[in-house]
Amino acid sequence: MSVGIVLVSHSAKLAQGLAELAAQMAPDVTILPAGGLSDGSIGTDYDEVVAATQRADSGDGVVLLYDLGSAQMTAELAVESLADPSAAIVADGPLVEGAIAAAVAAQSGQDRRAVAEAAATAGIPEDLAPSAEAPADAAEVELELRNDVGLHARPAAVLVRTLSEFDAEVTVRLGDQEADGHSVLALMSLGARQGDRIRVRARGPQASAALEKAKELVDGNFGE
Predict the structure, then answer these.
(1) Which intervals hold domain PTS EIIA type-4 (predicted)?
(2) Which fold has domain 4-120?
(3) Which of 10, 152, 182, 201 is catalytic?
(4) How many Å apart are CA 119 and CA 148, to the nearest integer?
(5) Which string of b and e fits 166-202 if b means at least 16 CB within 10 Å?
(6) Are the C-beta atoms of 62 and 56 separated by less than 8 Å?
(7) pLDDT tens figures, 51-63
(8) Is 152 assigned a catalytic role?
(9) Confidence (pTM)
(10) Residue 173 to residues 2, 31, 164, Cα–Cα distance (Å)
(11) Backbone angles phi, psi at 159, to 5 degrees
(12) Helix axes 46-56 and 69-80, enclosed angle (nearest 10)
């Protein structure tokens, strides 16, 4: 089981498209759209949001994200109406970035508070730090991206989900920029493309294992 996600939007098409995108990065997570009114017009439908929230909960709770102010009110009212309101959290974060971050966090097995936090902080710019020399206790490997889309969207999500399984701090460097290996958005911000060479650096008890798995993913084109 994993935390479910509900996307509350004034637009049915927006919610459906975003749910489809997020599902590509979190295939084992229930991600449900709840957008538009029952007649197909723009707006938010309280009953639909309640129903989606109930369906999305497989036992680990639900995180709801919203697009505009009145959608937040609808989401909060829906949560209050649940038999156990504490089972769901309305995350105050950007809808698109937040949905991606929340989906990856849920896929990684994090609890609903951690998933909500991932969504809430997704809109905070992450500075790409200039790379520095690796600390003495850090290991590093250089890898060439050969998959079609490089380190974007789904491949970045696959890498983050995999690295979260290891007790290690991991960063990924492209040129003179370095990003947190546990952040999908930070990795995507590197703009690493097919043919680019990245350096994956890890430190911690399972650093070597994390690097071996990263190499396996890159060499296998992230399963594409």
Answers:
(1) 2-128
(2) Rossmann fold (3.40.50)
(3) 10
(4) 28
(5) bebbbbbbbeebbbbbbbbbbbbbbebeeebebbbbb
(6) yes
(7) 999 999 999 999 9
(8) no
(9) 0.72
(10) 31, 31, 18
(11) -65, -45
(12) 60
